[in-house]
From TrEMBL:
It holds the Pfam family DUF915. The keyword Cytoplasm does not apply. Keywords: Hydrolase. Signal peptide: none annotated. InterPro entries: AB_hydrolase_fold, DUF915_hydro-like. This is Alpha/beta hydrolase. The keyword tRNA processing does not apply. GO terms for molecular function: hydrolase activity. Transmembrane segments: none annotated. It comes from Levilactobacillus koreensis. PROSITE patterns: PROKAR_LIPOPROTEIN.
């Protein structure tokens, strides 16, 4: 009886050790895959990150992302989900030789109204991708509050992070929102795009006139006009969107604006607008 007991005890001991080793090996493999990916020619990869608007999600980015896939820019769409605490989890992965993947960024706390926090989340996303894929450069597309994520990201010290090559701003409320701190046809811009009246966030963004990367970023600013006399997309005046020019044009590699006109130029429809898709294809492909 004692001998059988000893044999059973040894068997359970060896089994426990074996399972522990197997578990540690599996954990080590998972950890490695989550932190780094060995892709040849890492410097060739130039992903495009999409940032959605306030109260929205990655679903607002779907049509634009798929239009780029259909145009032949990439075959890869992956997602970066950012918790309210800034933890980033990635779903999907870059594919070898597919140098222009799309990353749909999904902010879970999308009703947070602090633009600086959105900038921190954008930075957390970029840092995570840099650690995993050793990125050197990337592009950004923002809609509505997603533009503030980009702008406040740029306000941060990004010298050690991958470089933005192309920046697309869609329906940006850089100097106010209608009904909150702006009204139709009230905002005036001078010949340089400088607003006569500046909101608090815009005053903060003025730092970019000195720190925006010099001759590095090609900028496309897209805004909507419902053509109803308000000179707005229904939520943001054209002047507020166009005030981006004063912030970045003197330092950008190039800066251009495109106005979308008509009912489908309404603020929340711009990310599902075929004309916007075509502009993105021409600009990014």
């Amino acid at each position: 009886m004692g001998r059988k007991y000893e044999m059973k005890k040894r068997f359970l001991l060896f089994l426990g050790i074996g399972l522990l080793v197997l578990g540690l090996t599996a954990c080590g493999t998972t950890s490695h895959q989550s932190t780094t990916a060995r892709l040849p020619h890492a410097s060739k990869y130039e992903p495009t990150l999409f940032f959605h608007g306030w109260g929205s999600s990655y679903r607002a980015e779907e049509q634009m992302a798929h239009s780029l896939v259909n145009a032949g820019l990439t075959k890869t769409i992956m997602r970066a989900t950012v918790s309210k605490h800034g933890k980033v989890s990635l779903a999907g992965q870059f594919r070898e030789g597919d140098y222009h993947p799309i990353v749909e960024v999904d902010f879970k706390d999308s009703r947070n109204s602090n633009p600086r926090q959105w900038g921190r989340w954008a930075k957390a996303t970029v840092v995570t991708l840099q650690q995993k894929y050793h990125l050197k450069k990337f592009n950004v597309v923002g809609h509505s509050m997603g533009n503030m994520a980009i702008m406040y990201y740029l306000l941060d010290n990004t010298s050690k992070l991958p470089k933005i090559q192309k920046q697309v701003n869609i329906a940006g409320h850089f100097d106010g929102i209608l009904g909150m701190n702006d009204e139709p046809n009230q905002m005036k811009l001078d010949h340089n795009g400088k607003p006569e009246k500046m909101q608090a966030d815009y005053k903060t963004l003025l730092q970019l006139r000195k720190t925006y990367p010099k001759n590095q970023i090609t900028v496309l600013n897209v805004y909507g006009d419902k053509n109803d006399g308000s000179h707005s997309d229904g939520s943001v005046s054209n002047a507020s969107s166009q005030s981006l020019r004063y912030l970045v044009s003197s330092r950008a590699k190039s800066y251009r604006e495109r106005k979308i006109v008509g009912p489908n130029a309404q603020h929340s429809k711009l990310h599902n607008n075929i004309q916007v898709d075509r502009l993105l294809i021409r600009f990014l492909c």
